[in-house]
Predict the 3D structure of the following.
Amino acid sequence: MNIADLKIGQKGIVTGFSDEELSLRLLDMGCLPGEEITLSCIAPLGDPIAIDVAGSRVSLRKKEASTVMIEKIS
Amino acid sequence: MRENILKVALIGNPNAGKTSIFNLLTGLNQKVGNFPGVTVDKKSGPCNKIKSRKVQIVDFPGTYSIYPRSADERVFFTEVTNPESDNFPDMAVVVVDAAHLKRNLLLFSQIKDMGVPAIIAMTMLDVLPEKDQLDLELLAQKLDSPIIPVNGRNGEGMEELIAEIERFEYHIPEPFLPMESYVHDDLFYRATAAFPDEHPYRVYQMMQQTDTYAGIGPEDIDIIDEIKENSSFKSHQLQAQETINRYRLLDDILREVKPHNKKIEENLRVSSQLDKILTHPLWGYFIFIGILFFMFQAIYSWASIPMDFIDEQFGALGEWISATLPDGALNSLISEGIIPGIGGIVIFVPQIAILFAFIALLEETGYMARAVFLTDRIMRVFGLNGKSIVPLISGVACAIPAVMAARNIENWKERLITILVAPLISCSARLPVYTILIALVIPDESIGFFNLQGLVLMGLYVLGFVLALGIALIMHKIINSPQRPFLIMELPSFRMPRWKNVGLTIYEKSKTFVFSAGKIIFIISIVLWVLASYGPGSEIAQAESIVTEQYQGDNQEELENLIASYKLEHSFAGYLGKAIEPVIEPLGYDWKIGIALITSFAAREVFVGSMATIYSVGTDAENTKTVKDRLATEINPKTGLPVFNLASGISLMIFYAIAMQCMSTLAIVKRETKSWKWPMVQLAYLTGLAYVSALIAYQTLI
């Protein structure tokens, strides 16, 4: 599953990326494999979304979010 | 050290508090210039508090890592890889936000590996809930670099930071992360063997960012390319591994420094609550539109008080000079050319100041990123990016910062479209044109709660915005781009604005406006005065006798007006205006407006000044009325109607709302797009669109 599958407030652990180019940008922002992320906001029109990762809030489009593989934690 | 000046690069993540520290270090001594070859704003200044040596601080655009994502971010890399450059730093002050320690230290670790001695200015310690638990001494030891806690709000710690810079002695720092941990042996040996005198990490960066690395010649590039080929260099994989390894090492260090390693969630919680409201489907847009509405209100109503005052003062000054100096060319040059010219510049300052105050406030509080978040989905439909909202909002102040603000958009196509449509947003230079035309042709009445004049003004802004989106959509269909668009952006924590930063932005932007835009306006008003006062033939000199001879009536005032208008008609400006009259007549304009159109091709704001000059030349100086009164009494001799009636007024407003009448914007677009193609496209489509729209408006209304 990936970040785009989460609902607001749900958490996951990043396991990997399916897009190399995007992954480099996310890595720079502290979104690393093993890091816990929380889906914190969804824009009114359903896209983009915002996640909390490594103490910061990062917004990304749904399509980009779907390239971040996660393991959901409850 | 070159020229004995210590060059200090100030660098850090976006939102780390870099601007405050720069302001505290340099005060009002800062200079805004450009980095060589690019139009990225370069702010630099001496640090006068250091007495023992000369220190030059250069402020670099905020970045998350040494791998740049946008033109702005690229500057640091090109400067730090070019020892020949004037901006090549002897040392770096890395501003590190304690609330986002790990991510901020990533950049620090890369800078250190580049062989740049770095010290850390740590901000936001005051917002840390577990302030005491961060062992700064241990952290400094682990990072092998001094850490100075500073507070950008009250300046605490700045003395220590300044002392640390003063103490600096050049040295080559130990690398933070050994390259062997992510680069395989074969590549490592080839690289270090080829460039034995360089830091290994620099050689690695030559391979990673060969095109951006500034300090290598074509021969070196050949060597680099050969190594890359022979050792099957995988750029992206290596970069990902490098970043992960850096974070791992930082994790290990931070675990020791923060024994409990609790996550810093306090700040996020506050933001969470606010974001819930600000990105709410209903309240989110409601607040967004409310803020914009409030902004326009402020620009229109608050600014009018100081503006009226300025207008009156300059009017009085002109009158006084005209009455005091002996009659003649000098008197008229000063009272009819220079004074109204300067007045026309200064009168803008309140509006510019209020606009930039709003934009600075939105940036400072962190709201601007939310505006991007809210609008991205809508903007995407039009081939734009949520980040286009920043240029489009800035465009309300001026198209020049708007076009420059588009640099934040990583995708070339989205950026280009934003640049192309930005001038359609009504900038503050159009406001005086609108203001005066609205006052002339729109009655001061109310419809329900709304003032009719205010509604028309709002309508002009809406017109510009709607056209901007429409044109963007067309461009989106026409322009092709292989580059994929994306939006990965931090939503910074909300915080109180730092008023000093807001104040400095207002001061700096107003100053830039007065001295750069003002220069053009000033020169044009003098040129205009000359053009309107002298002519090619002898008609001007003989105006009085010719008109008096033909005049039948006995009204002295009417006679004088006839003489004045005869003079203007036979001046250089008159001939110019008449030359274009056939083209603009269908839009409802006469040749006097034609003169103003020609002169305001350099800059729209010249319109009002031009009108003032054109209509005041030759009028009785003791009778100087405001520009508005003079325009209102102007009668078109052909139709017998007022020159400024509803149809011609609306047509003129629409023309100004659309037309590309700003040479400075064209120049900036040329620099930003690196070719004359796009500014020319822009000039052609905007002028054409303006003409057709104004034509339709006039012919429908008349």
